[in-house]
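re the bet — no i am not wrong, look at it urself. input seq straight from the record:
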Amino acid sequence: MSQATAPLLETRGLTKVYGRFTALEPTDVTIHEGSIHGFLGKNGAGKSTLVQLLAGSVMPTAGQVLFRGQDITSLPLARRREMGIHLLSQHAQVVADLSVAENLVLPGYPRKGPFLDRRAMRRQAQELLDRYALRFPVDALAGSLSAPDQRRLSIVRTLMDQGALAMLDEPTTALSQGERESLFEWIRGLNEEGQTFVFISHFNSEIQAICTNVTVLRDGRVVADGEDPRAMTSAEISELVVGDKVQEFVRTRRPATRERVVVDGLVSDGVGPVSFTVGEGEILGLVGLPESGAQETARALAGLRPTQAGTVTVDGRVLRAGHVRDAIAGGVAYLTNDRIGEGIVGALTIREMLRLGNWPTRGPLVDDGEVSRTYDRYHSRLEFRVSSSRQPIEELSGGNQQKILLGRLLALEPKLLVLDEPTLGVDVATKEEVHRLVDELTANGMSVILLAYDTDEMVRMVDRVITFSDGTPSGQLTGDEITADGIIARLNHAPTELAPASA
């Protein structure tokens, strides 16, 4: 990493207020030229607000932003980009109707005379993909890529911009450990060449691995600025983030009392046949690499994928395969891993989002009183940090959006809750809150299917694990067999017959 030198960007008393809600208290932060400066904090702590103010996508209520000593507070986003300040937000930024190659070289297309040099464009794009170890074809439409691959594409494009300051807002979301390490190596190389970064993350280990210094925010305030995270323990950093020692939640496994869900011979577009059961009060983990069949099976259960054979039965009721409404009516609720693309509807308020698809009525009209009561009930239970029930959900942090989506599913009163990466992109404190909520739900009899790439999370939370490989189950783990090594060992096993949940 390059040694930090003169200030590149500074804030002085930078403040953002929405009505009666203060998103960012007066803040003084200094980002030095040649540094990799980490921003760390819980969801809703003010990290995203701060980087939006630095990028110019949001204007401050008070205070200043200085770039190389120049006051740029009033300059808009486009002007700051011209000066070399770039923000990669938490959400993939690709042009869906352009190819991978076109996205990577946008806007500086190589030309041969007055014409676009497509051969050179494809060659440049392939060199970038090879250097970052990305395997999708350069001619594929960006919109055809999975959500994680779109994010990887946008990360590479931002890093190639060679701006004075590249701000990466949770860039490792949906990346495997190997892809994270590759990204870190790439960032370090650019940093050695003089590139300055702001790196926003929820993970202490990432901040310690990549950052030269760190700013920690809590409840809209800076509680530490310029500290060297490599000189601190993870516990010390966590205490700064949450204001107290973090108690990691480890769930006590409990046997299922009876079978609630029976999946029998399910086949869905090349995945299967898959058969398993889920007991009442049980958390069943489905684990597999991308396209292994784990996520595909979960989405088929929720009616989000067509099926060609097999049945899904919940409490004796056979559900119509491939029908979301029938799955919901039968007691199945699904939390997507793509919060922005499939989860929230940005134009809706929080109270509207909580009852989306499940509007209470009084006669021909929406029962506004029941909508308000739903908000009050889940605001109290889930403790999301918002200015009011009528705040647009798109203004919330990722962790608070995730709590709203969980509240919406709980309002459906499901029997089976399918959670696809429920703690993806949330801070350590919110992660523990989600784990405790899920444990409470299962203690009261709800059945849960959990998908998570984080094997440690799987080990801490589930009663039983089914691993998938090549579209079918490859193994099952119970009790003391559920370890990170045990899960990894079974991912490449041959298909296996699975025993039912113990009663």
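see?? Residues 258-492 form a domain with the Rossmann fold fold (CATH 3.40.50.300). told u. also The two ends are 56 Å apart (CA to CA). so pay up
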